[in-house]
Structure formats: structure tokens, C-alpha cells
Amino acid sequence: MAQRKEARDSLDNFPTPPWATRALLEHIIEQGGYTDHLSCLEPACGAGHMAKVLAEYFGSVSASDVYDYGYGDIADFLSADVERGSYDWVITNPPFRLAEEFITHGLKVARRGVAVLVRTVFLESVGRYERIFSSTPPSAVAQFVERVPMVKGRLDKKASTATGYAWVIWEKGSDRGTRLLWVPPCRKSLERADDYDEQYSSDVDDGFEAPVRDQNKLLL
Ligand SMILES: C[S@@+](CC[C@H](N)C(=O)[O-])C[C@H]1O[C@@H](n2cnc3c(N)ncnc32)[C@H](O)[C@@H]1O
Predict the structure, then answer these.
(1) How far from each other are the two terminal CA atoms of the chain, in whole angstroms?
(2) Which pLDDT does position 3 carry in this prediction?
């Protein structure tokens, strides 16, 4: 199976299938609708595939991206002047090569927590252990038991993948250590008929050349 190789300056534009975001809220974060009065920032929103789902659950959702995909504001999350503690949650599928920076910055911006959808291999590496996990361990890692296929620049209901994904969550004030959770099989129940209606095709040449069929996922 080909490995993904992204150019260092790639935007890493891999939209999240809507059901994978619903899985975070339904199975990990949301219990009894308590997010409906909370605010959320999706700071790498792309064409809005994750932000639109977050709006199904949160009272308010702000969305931005460094590139103009026709959805949300235009902003580089890592250099934009976002007030500390200005959102309850920061939730995103960040560009993989900048995931650490998104987490660190997100923890400043969020009052309650940060959740990122990352390839499960993100949990590896001495460097990430030393820079993040040893000093700021997540409160939960929620591993998808199903595959979450992601394709560069568009949603594809029929895509497949060999890549595992997890939601990694930092819930502020949690002192229970890092919980390992599983996102149970839920694609069938959380996928909606119109999720793939607005086929978005990127016209952004971000240097990706390897054959791509993969990407995956989940959280708290
Ligand atoms: C993996 S895609 C995820 C898109 C969207 N979050 C979703 O889940 O469908 C990563 C996104 O990060 C954006 N991005 C890359 N660098 C960024 C930065 N410094 N600030 C904000 N967005 C950035 C890319 O343009 C791309 O849309």
C-alpha cells in the first residue's frame, strides 16, 4: 500500500467524511446535548465538511482556513491573532505536518478542550513524546475501529484506506490520565444520504504526487 507523501509546503487538503465528525460528538464528547450552548472553532475548515457537522451540535461554530475554499474566513491559524480562551472547543482535522502546532495553539484558544482527528501513527515518535505527550498528555485517545477513508481534495463515499485514524482529545481540567477509547462501528448509522452531494474538487496544486487512496481518524 502506497504511503502518503506530502510536500513540506502542502496544504494537506483531505476533507473529513461527515460521519467521522458525528462519531466524535455522538460517541465521545456529546452526552445529553450539552454542547448546544457551547462555541467551537474549526481553524482548518477547508470546504467546511467538518464545520458543517459541528454546527449540528454546537451553539455556534466559527470556521477559517489559510486557503479560500469558499467556506468560512481566511486565516492562518498559527499566526492569526485569536484571543486566548475565546472558544469553548477547538476541533479540526489539521494538516498532519502542522498538527503539533495546531494542538499547542488550540490549547491557548480553547476554554474547554481541543480535539484533533489524526492518523493513529501521530501517537508515535520520540519527538512528539518529548514535545507534547510527556508534558501535556491528551485526556483521551479514541481509535476508530472502522476505516475512515479520506481522499485528497474531495469526499469519496467509495474510497478505501489502509490508514488508521483516531480522535485525540485534550479536555481541560481532566485529571484522569489518558483514556483509551474506541469509536464503535457507526458509519452506517451516522452517514446521511446527502453527505456526499456537494462534491468538492480542489483546484489547489499543493504538490501532492503519490497515488492517494487513504487517510483516517477519531476522539474523547
Ligand atoms: C486535512 S485538511 C482538513 C479540512 C477540514 N478540516 C476537514 O476536516 O474537512 C487540512 C486543512 O488545513 C488547511 N491548512 C493548512 N495550513 C493551515 C494553516 N496554517 N492555518 C489554517 N489552515 C491551514 C488546509 O488548507 C486544509 O484545508
Answers:
(1) 30
(2) 52
